[in-house]
Amino acid sequence: xxxxxxxxxxxxxxxxxxxxxxxxxxxxxxxxxxxxxxxxxxxxxxxxxxxxxxxxxxxxxxxxxxxxxxxxxxxxxxxxxxxxxxxxxxxxxxxxxxxxxxxxxxxxxxxxxxxxxxxxxxxxxxxxxxxxxxxxxxxxxxxxxxxxxxxxxxxxxxxxxxxxxxxxxxxxxxxxxxxxxxxxxxxxxxxxxxxxxxxxxxxxxxxxxxxxxxxxxxxxxxxxxxxxxxxxxxxxxxxxxxxxxxxxxxxxxxxxxxxxxxxxxxxxxxxxxxxxxxxxxxxxxxxxxxxxxxxxxxxxxxxxxxxxxxxxxxxxxxxxxxxxxxxxxxxxxxxxxxxxxxxxxxxxxxxxxxxxxxxxxxxxxxxxxxxxx
Length: 373
What we know:
Helix content is about 45%, strand content about 10%. With about 375 residues, the protein is α+β, with helices and mostly antiparallel strands. The longest helix is centred in the C-terminal third of the chain and has 26 residues, at about 280-305. Strands 4-7-9-8-5-6 form a 6-stranded antiparallel β-sheet. The protein has a two-stranded parallel ribbon with strand order 1-10.
């Protein structure tokens, strides 16, 4: 059996797929991190899996299975704010909302009563009278066309039961009026046992893993890997930042993200000593380690001589070839500027579709033309 053969280099793959660390400590009346099997405290789960499970995950990654999305979309403060949010997710009475008790709600007055109950519980447990959210809203979705609305909704209900049932009240609403279906999940921050729901990066990753697992249990190819495990170095631009960009650009105040990135790239290009930031060096080293883990797996698979292993090894090679270069947006823009400043003759002689250097030089812009002499 493959489990006994030990084909895949599990330690290096586990390191490449290692989830974010951190999360909140468990203290009664304080914040709580999510752990497998339900809400509550505990240390972060060490990542370990057998050969069969690792192979399945490797296949999903290199074949680019759709990545699930679980994101915090907002926080609500007080009964009125929570009720307004319920009205939004219910499309003001046009959609049904499902409660954690299984109640299907369409009446706005019932939603307002639940919002009031959540606020009263939160106020009763707020010993110091601090301003804090009464509820937190999440959005669960998949890329368009990767699953149907009914399956997504069913997986989201299972997700919510696993993480919150018996402690945190919650409400679910399915939206199908956009490019792809998504579920709005609103969670009461105050738990029945006195803990509060306030997820951190590690918690959100575990939530993505749980949601992906529930989708796979329903026959949907879904994965939940950190961006770095897929070779991405540039951070995803948050939707809030995009909205801020649009607002600042329209009002003509302050620099938006694109303008700030341009200034940083120009500063890098004009600097006498073009030194990369520590985070740029770390990103390059991290991607080199991740590339090495996948390459080692491809070699191990090829060595078995089995057609299915060789085929997967070739898929891994293609995945590595398509992996983006380990450069930040600042360095990528600096490279563009330096390339544009090269003499026209040099640019004319350069082959079309030339790609940025990889390997040891990845993440390093081409030398300034004054330094090429």
